[in-house]
Amino acid sequence: QVTLRESGPALVKPTQTLTLTCTFSGFSLNTRGMCVSWIRQPPGKALEWLAHIDWDDNKYYSTSLKTRLTISKDTSKNQVVLTMTNMDPVDTATYYCARIQTLRWYEFDSWGQGILVTVSS
Amino acid sequence: QSALTQPRSVSGSPGQSVTISCTGTSSDVGGYYFVSWYQQHPGKAPKLMIYDVNKRPSGVPDRFSGSKSGNTASLTISGLQAEDEADYYCCSYAGSYTVVFGGGTKLTVL
Asked: Is A119 helix (H, G, I), strand (E, B) or coil?
């Protein structure tokens, strides 16, 4: 059974750096073709893709946010970490991690429950 | 990477069919056969319903079907049921390992 779970702070202040961790089970990021992505959703708004990391440690970022994002993995802990710098109230959103198999970048077949992050002073 | 265009809302009565459109460009929807659709109930994570334009993952009812013509992909739900009421999002590969989502469509079952 595949599971993913996001963890991190529920509240961050403007200009701070957000660090989120996705802890997963039921698959390995050492498996060829396996990937984990981050996607966010502001309250009442649409989904927005943020970043992917694949089994070979290749990293891909949203063009509009790439200067603020860093994605990394720790395969020994089955974790993927996303950092986002210079947080702003418009970054308030539920942040999801999701799995991709066989490099099918648009096919998120398993999702975490999401974590709501509020940016406020 | 501009969001794909979806109608904000659609509605239908139980048993009817509804179609949700998803319009992009030749750089995303029109350029690849890599479109997926997600169902999201309030307060829940999205669920994959369609991939590769028209394929259904195991467990998704065959009432859900997908298609594509040019720069527009479509999701059709036939035999509407109360539990189909949710938000639906399309997603397309947009080249260079990136993806783009649609703005979302709220489906109301009357």
From this structure: strand
